[in-house]
Design a protein that fits this description.
The protein is of the alpha/beta class. It contains 17 helices and 23 strands. Bound molecules: 2-acetamido-2-deoxy-beta-D-glucopyranose (4 copies). Keywords: Signal. It holds the Pfam family NadN_nucleosid_C.
């Protein structure tokens, strides 16, 4: 067992900080230190454009410029210790924040901002692949920017002129670390994603591990394999890659970095192979260290000769970054870091991200509040927003059911200003609503049940693509009840209340945040938090609109967000409705994102 890490308290002194000017002042928390090893890593994943930091949550309010400063100091500290530090990013850098989504074309500012960090291994996420123009920008901008470190082990790009399929970037990379001279073989994967745009090709990892280049790569004799992937740690793809490497290298340490599931997690594959995942939305900077790479460290690992893997999930909090580098607000920001912070401020201003559409009257949560319930963002959608925005001028009185997948919503709504930026945090997508007219009501209802529970030809596991990432690939330490959603929720709510109360008696003033449990224990988070309860959400929600006052309608229009189309058609078919894509028509002009912004302007007119 690993011992409990000692706690220290980070102290806030004056106010000349970096971060964005609108960012709230960070709050101190009891801290766990970083354990340095011979080889150390900083990891970001699923940043989704949040390079400006969290402007409504003080514990995640550092920006990408602060991360540039942090990495500079950590590199200096590594040099002083005579050890190595590598930076990793595992994709989904785009979609999810006004800084990326607020420009036309998208990402006008973020590519340059992100590119200011020097990263040693970087790969692609599914969000870089949904739209052809996103794929193209990744190829034309990000790949050349990280020419030496971009890895595309199972991803090809289709060149627009020739139609040729070429590797999106190098398949793997071999390099030697600066201070210790470790030989590293680095690979970079994406899970077996199949909704990618036509100018990209994702090869299933089962096939990639049979490729000649892969066999050659794993037959090299490195000191350590570095496997990065936009893959949840508990997904089968990492097991396939791990097994393939172990089939040739029973003994070489493997450091694995994953993402996609939006959780903090660590997974042990064997005594010499560990993986970490570092959350989402630039809330977390992951830390992994390995000691005893060539010799093993028998004092820590149960097997003599095994290296020691440690991990820490660093809150993206300036006070924590000061703490880990032993610096303060005057000594911490580097010139380069300040410049990047300025780039972000300038971009936010140019994009008018602080432009206010309205004022949220209360907090609305995705998973921190029970669904259905008055504090649930999904109930807000069902009861207030969808009935107002799902309107077709030619069918104003036709009864309809509006269906939206919960994964279409990306973030909580905080009480207070609802800005252009907020709109993209909640809904970065460009898709709108389509419909199938005059569906028998009972068929429509059965189809919705099937989308939530699974059915013939719609496996419950495939339907998880519809819900939020945290529900799709839950860590085994995030416990879900087998009971029905509502029973389970009631029970979890009671436990949460008791637990939180007890916790707060002994630990006053803790900020609510991550209390991670993983294969390495429960001391992974760098800052001690009070726990947040996680409530389950379904795959899809739905609103009945213009229903007769007395009883159910015979027929309804089934309206759905575009992402649902490949699921809704089979669900209707297996519920007794014979429809195909020819029956699908546009219901309302504009994207959900634009309709949401317009609704906020009309309805949330109160003062903040
Ligand atoms: C890909 O190409 C097919 C056939 O040309 C087309 O129907 C489809 O809409 C395209 N998909 C995307 C995502 O561009
Ligand atoms: C920051 O640290 C420097 C060097 O230790 C010290 O001179 C300075 O007074 C500190 N500043 C603050 C605001 O604590
Ligand atoms: C920061 O920006 C200034 C002004 O644009 C420039 O002169 C300087 O070289 C930059 N410094 C770094 C380290 O990027
Ligand atoms: C939103 O505003 C519109 C226009 O004023 C109004 O018709 C509608 O009832 C409002 N919706 C809600 C849920 O208050």
């Amino acid at each position: 067992m690993l011992g409990k890490a000692p706690l220290a308290v980070a102290v806030l002194a004056s106010v000349t900080r970096a971060a964005q000017p609108e960012a709230p002042a960070p709050i101190a928390a009891p801290m766990r230190d970083l354990d340095w090893g011979e080889l150390n890593f900083l990891h970001t994943t699923d940043t989704h454009g949040w390079h400006g930091g969290h402007l409504q949550e003080s514990q995640y309010s550092a920006d990408w410029g602060d991360y540039v400063s942090f990495a500079d100091h950590m590199h200096r500290m590594a040099d002083e210790k005579g050890v190595d530090l590598l930076l990793v990013d595992t994709g989904d850098r785009v979609e999810g924040n006004g800084l990326y989504d607020g420009s036309d074309p998208k990402g006008q500012f973020t590519y340059d901002i992100m590119g200011q960090q020097s990263i040693d291994a970087i790969c692609t996420g599914n969000h870089e692949l949904y739209l052809e123009d996103t794929v193209e920008r990744e190829h034309d901008i990000t790949v050349p920017m990280f020419k030496k470190s971009y890895l595309a082990s199972n991803l090809d790009y289709i060149e627009p002129q020739s139609g040729n399929s070429i590797p999106q970037a190098q398949r793997y990379r071999t390099f030697t670390t600066k201070n210790r001279g470790y030989k590293v073989v680095a690979l970079g994967f994406l899970f077996n994603f199949d909704r990618n745009a036509n100018n990209s090709v994702v090869q299933p990892v089962e096939e990639t591990v049979k490729e000649e280049w892969f066999i050659k790569a794993i037959q090299e004799k490195p000191d350590v394999f570095l496997v990065i992937g936009h893959i949840g740690l508990r997904m089968k793809e990492f097991e396939i890659i791990f097994d393939a490497i172990r089939s040739q290298n029973w003994d070489t340490p493997i450091a694995i970095f994953g993402g996609h599931a939006h959780v903090r997690d660590a997974r042990k594959f064997d005594n010499k192979a560990y993986a970490i995942a570092s959350g989402r939305y630039f809330e977390t900077i992951g830390w992994m260290s390995i000691d005893g790479i060539k010799t093993g460290t028998s004092d820590v690992s149960p097997l003599k000769g095994s290296p020691a893997f440690k991990r820490r999930y660093i809150d993206n909090n300036l006070l924590g970054l000061y703490h880990h580098t032993g610096l303060n607000e005057t000594t911490f920001p580097t010139d380069h870091g300040r410049n990047v912070t300025k780039m972000i401020t300038k971009a936010r201003k140019e994009l008018k991200l602080d432009h206010r559409f309205g004022c949220a009257p209360q907090d609305y949560w995705m998973t921190r509040a029970e669904y259905p319930g008055t504090d649930s963002v999904f109930t807000l959608l069902e009861e207030q927003i969808l009935p107002d925005i799902v309107k077709n001028k030619d069918r104003p009185k036709t009864p309809r059911i509006a269906i939206q997948n919960t994964g279409a919503i990306r973030f909580d709504i905080f009480k207070g200003p609802f800005t252009k930026d907020t709109t993209y945090l909640i809904s970065p997508f460009t898709s709108g609503f389509s419909y199938i007219p005059d569906v028998t009501y009972t068929v429509a209802k059965r189809a919705i049940q099937m989308l939530n529970r699974g059915g013939p030809a719609l496996a419950a596991s495939d339907l998880k693509a519809l819900t939020i990432p945290e529900m799709r690939h839950p860590s085994p330490f995030l416990s879900f009840s087998d009971r029905s959603l509502s029973q389970g929720l009631a029970l979890q709510g009671q436990q949460a209340n008791t637990f939180t109360k007890n916790f707060q008696l002994s630990k006053p003033n803790l900020v609510a945040g991550y209390t991670t449990k993983d294969d390495l224990g429960d001391d992974g988070d760098d800052a001690e938090h009070s726990p947040i309860q996680f409530f389950q959400v379904p795959n899809v929600i739905s609103a009945d609109i213009e229903f007769p006052k007395d009883g159910d309608p015979d027929k309804v229009d089934v309206v759905f967000n575009d992402y649902l189309q490949p699921y809704i058609i089979p669900a209707l078919q297996f519920s007794g409705g014979d429809y195909d894509s020819d029956n699908v028509k546009r219901y309302v002009e504009g994207s959900f994102t634009d309709l949401l912004a317009a609704w906020i302007k009309e309805n949330w007119t109160g003062k903040c």
